[in-house]
Amino acid sequence: MNTANKTLSISVSGCPSTSLRAVSLSNRKPDLRDGWVFAIVLSMLLISAAAASAAKVVVEAEHYYTLKSSMAKASSQVASGSAYVHIPLQQPHGATEGAPFDTGYALFKVKIPKTGTYNLWGRVHWYDGCGNSFLLKIDDKPQMVFGNDGTYQRWHWVRGLRISLTQGVHTIRFQNREDGAKLDQFMLTTDTRYVPVRAEKETKQYIIRPK
Ligand SMILES: [Ca+2]
Questions:
Q1: How far is Cα 208 from Cα 205, in angstroms, rounded to an integer?
Q2: Which of 38, 120, 121, 158 has the CB geometry, 3.0–4.6 Å to 187, for a possible disulfide?
Q3: How far is the CA of 47 from the centre of ligand 1 (A)?
Q4: Full residue range of the structural domain in which residue 36 is found
């Protein structure tokens, strides 16, 4: 077998296109650099495979199953789907972290496509430090605070808890904690590396709506 001209070339598509250095298999002995090239390519393949197999559920907040006042649906051209849900600002606006003034909520029913550990993210808009959270309850688990970060007056993603979910239907409830809190979308993903930046494409196949 003639291996004199046997060459392994590895290219990566992109814009501009890039290609990794061709490695001759016959004209010299493998060295440390070849190991690095192999490790980099292998890492890229493993990351791609993990992302491709990740489960992701994206729900528009206006596609709730049930809505209880004072949680309300509202319209906005800068919200995904041109709509969101919120606890409207009160007069006067709440100024403490005390008990919420009512139990308004938006309840969602979602089909989790596969059993796994999920990161929950919410695309939110907070009024101020006294309007920057919801209470979050998943199934019959204890409710917890979602949000309380310091980004105000613009839509942004906030990461909540990591939670183990089984394949099948689960209920997720965003409940009043502070007035002036808005929710545009939420997302559950098994890809722990994934950080959303813009509004996400909704996964309608995983959302249960009332008949
Ligand atoms: Ca929305």
A1: 8
A2: 121
A3: 30
A4: 7-53
